[in-house]
Specification:
Blueprint lengths: L1 E6 L4 H11 L4 E8 L7 H4 L12 E2 L2 H4 L4 E4 L6 H5 L7 E4 L9 H8 L31 E3 L3 H15 L3 E12 L14 H4 L4 E2 L8 H13 L5 E7 L6 E9 L5 H12 L5 E3 L17 E8 L4 E8 L3 H16 L15
Parallel strand pairs: 1-2, 1-4, 2-3, 4-5, 5-6, 7-9, 11-12
Antiparallel strand pairs: 7-10, 8-9, 10-13, 12-13
Bound molecules: NADPH dihydro-nicotinamide-adenine-dinucleotide phosphate and N-acetyl-L-glutamyl 5-phosphate.
């Protein structure tokens, strides 16, 4: 068996990692750690994780995380670098935070306003790259992996096939996405009060202000092999989980609409977690809840000369914890799909 420690186990992402690891055939759960909730029993914080109810959360220290084959970090941004530095090089560290996702130190400083910790291999295995490669090539056997943000996961996979195949213009990409409230974490925040969220949708980070803008542009630029510019608008939706993103881009002049669908079909034909739905069936967040799936559908808007791609992910599963387990599987040489659900919970 392989032993895993989970730091941030009292939070939403940490709890979801534990839920998935409970069903994992070869990874067993070792230390579980937290911040202010250290000393609490998991059963008090995650009543749904019944088999772990009596496990006591430890302080998040290098000593608690020592002696494992893989360490999952599900901590707020900025907490990963110092801890990861204490983990031996031969132990896999899978970081759910943003600290090591960006190549550009300049983009990091602009959006996170702290010193850039560095760059680790980016944990989106299915991402098609220019020239026919896949992002997973960088993840097999890796010992440090940065798990993507939840919005960049569905959005990058929605548009990458068209960019990798040169079908869409890199300078006219527009994305509007709605996220469930768990995307913001478990901490109390005024804009997440029930009376603010229930029965209402709200935009935020409008005008290129969201920190996922540079992450999405980075991923799409890897796919295109050239810089890509994105206008991204997130919105908060009154649901606990799920992201529905609508991504549109201008088709290159002369692109035959008939080849567009084929590019996406081909890109994901062999991917167990990324599915282009049958024509005319559109993704819904309910269809991905609790699963490691990305569901996609697209249409060519011939009048506007654009392709419109809709993607749905569960922000806590494929958007964080599922991706983290998938990356751990790749890092440790296990079957990539081990322990990962491929069916959602609809309706
Ligand atoms: N929620 C989502 O959909 C996604 C989250 N992520 C990333 O995953 C990470 C965790 O997010 P999420 O679970 O939502 O956040 P939560 O706020 O739900 O959980 C944060 C966790 O970090 C712990 N923590 C906070 N401060 C400290 C500290 N100083 N020392 C040790 N532990 C600490 C908390 O412990 P305690 O509560 O006991 O203080 C808790 O276990 C973040 O980096 C987030 O950006 C990435 C993609 C999507
Ligand atoms: C609804 C909501 O607030 N969502 C979060 C995104 C969460 C995520 O992807 O996490 P990272 O912080 O790890 O990038 C936000 O927009 O800030």
């Amino acid at each position: 068996m392989t032993r895993a420690a989970v730091a941030g186990a009292s939070g939403y992402a940490g709890g979801e990692i534990l839920r998935l690891l409970l069903a994992h055939p070869t990874i067993e759960i070792g230390a579980v750690t937290a911040g202010s909730n250290a000393g609490e029993r998991l059963g008090a914080l995650h009543p749904h994780l019944v088999p772990l109810a009596d496990r006591v959360l430890q302080d998040t220290t290098p000593e608690a995380l020592a002696g494992h084959d893989v360490v999952f970090l599900a901590l707020p941004h900025g907490h990963s670098a110092a801890l990861a530095a204490t983990v031996p090089d031969d132990v896999a560290v899978i970081d759910c935070g943003a600290d090591f996702r960006l190549e550009s130190g300049q983009a990091w400083t602009r959006f996170y306003d702290t010193e850039h910790a560095g760059t680790w291999p980016y944990g989106l295995p299915e991402l098609p790259l220019t020239g026919g490669a896949r992002q997973r090539d960088q993840l097999a056997g890796a010992r440090r992996i940065a798990v993507p943000g939840c919005y960049p996961t569905g959005i990058s996979l929605a548009l990458a096939p068209g960019l990798a195949e040169g079908l869409i213009e890199p300078d006219d990409v527009v994305v509007v996405a709605a996220s469930g409230t768990s995307g913001a974490g478990k901490g109390l925040k005024a804009h997440l009060l029930g009376s603010e969220v229930m029965g209402s949708m709200s935009p935020y980070g409008v005008g290129g202000g969201h920190r996922h803008s540079p992450e999405i542009e980075q991923n799409l630029s890897w796919a295109a092999g050239a810089p890509v510019t994105v206008s991204f608008t997130p919105t908060l939706a009154p649901m606990p989980r799920g992201i529905l993103a609508t991504s549109t881009a201008r088709l290159r002049p002369g692109t035959d609409p008939a080849v567009v669908r084929g590019a996406w079909e081909q890109a994901y034909a062999d991917e167990p977690f990324v599915h282009l739905l049958p024509e005319g069936v559109w993704p819904r967040t309910a269809d991905v809840v609790g699963s490691n799936l990305v569901l996609l559908q697209l249409a060519v808007d011939a009048h506007a000369g654009r392709v419109v791609v809709v993607s749905a992910v569960d922000n806590l599963t494929k958007g964080t914890a599922g991706a983290a387990v998938q990356c751990a599987n790749l890092a440790l040489g296990l079957a990539e799909t081990s322990g990962l659900p491929v069916a959602g919970v609809a309706p």
